[in-house]
Amino acid sequence: MGKCNWVAVAAAAAAVVILAVAGRVEGRSGYGKEVTAAHISGKVLCQDCNQGWAEWIDGKPIKGAKVAVTCMDCRGRVVYHGSDFTDEKGEFELKVVRQRAYGKAIEVEDCTVRLEDSSPDSTCNVRTDFGGGRSGVRPHDPSAFQSGLVKYTVGPFYFTPPDCDYPDASNPLGDGDDD
């Protein structure tokens, strides 16, 4: 291929990238008027301090954990609440339909996603705030846009075994003397 052909290919590739970025920016700045629903997805994992580093940091998926989304208006009133249970991969997907409540549209950025209840895994059932699962997190920075839909990803959220949540305080001095 000659030098001119490479320049033409490079120019075409640059044009495609510029158009893609422009389309994404346009979609992001104008999505508030077009969006009819939002999907919020994530994972719930067991973070076991009794395991090695690789197993601890990656976590084990928890099936059947309940995750909820609650949206409030500017006066602190709940305007939307929904929940989902995790699948065998520990994944959940919550859908928030953009509707009007008290005269204003629900904004997903005003919602909080959190773990609800305890884990169905009795060996890993203490909610942690690692990833914001206990206190909740607000969706931000959409991960994808589609016609009428914006997607967010949160978490992962974690549970931990009971013996990992509370340190052993039976010997606070750690001197090996149990007396």
Key phrases:
single chain; 179 residues; alpha+beta; Immunoglobulin-like; three-stranded antiparallel β-sheet; 32% strand; elongated; disordered N terminus
Q: Secondary structure elements and their pairing?
A:
Layout: H1 3-34, E1 37-46, H2 53-58, E2 60-61, E3 66-72, E4 78-85, E5 91-97, E6 100-101, E7 104-105, E8 111-116, E9 126-127, E10 144-146, E11 149-153, E12 157-160, H3 162-165
Parallel strand pairs: 1-11, 1-12
Antiparallel strand pairs: 1-2, 1-5, 3-4, 3-8, 6-7, 9-12, 10-11
Keywords: Signal
Organism: Zingiber officinale
GO cellular component, one term: cell periphery
Account of the protein in words:
This protein has 179 residues and is α+β, with helices and mostly antiparallel strands. It folds into 2 domains: 34 residues; 131 residues, Immunoglobulin-like (Sandwich). It contains 3 helices and 12 strands; from the N terminus they run H-E-H-E-E-E-E-E-E-E-E-E-E-E-H. The strands form 3 sheets. Strands 1, 2, 5, 9, 10, 11 and 12 form a 7-stranded mixed beta sheet that branches. It has a 3-stranded antiparallel beta sheet with strand order 4-3-8, with no helix packed on it. A two-stranded antiparallel ribbon has the order 6-7. It is elongated and about 50 Å long. The relative contact order is 0.20.
The gist of it:
By secondary structure, the chain is an alpha+beta fold. Helix content is 23%, strand content 32%.
Structural class assignment:
alpha+beta
> What is the CATH domain class of the largest domain?
Mainly Beta
Number of domains: 2
Oligomer: single chain
> CATH topology of the largest domain, which one?
Immunoglobulin-like
Distance between the termini: 84 Å
Based on CA inertia axes, which overall geometry fits?
A: elongated
Query: What's the architecture of the largest domain in CATH terms?
Result: Sandwich
Signal peptide: 1-27
GO cellular component, one term: cell periphery
Keywords: Signal
Protein name: Pollen Ole e 1 allergen and extensin family protein
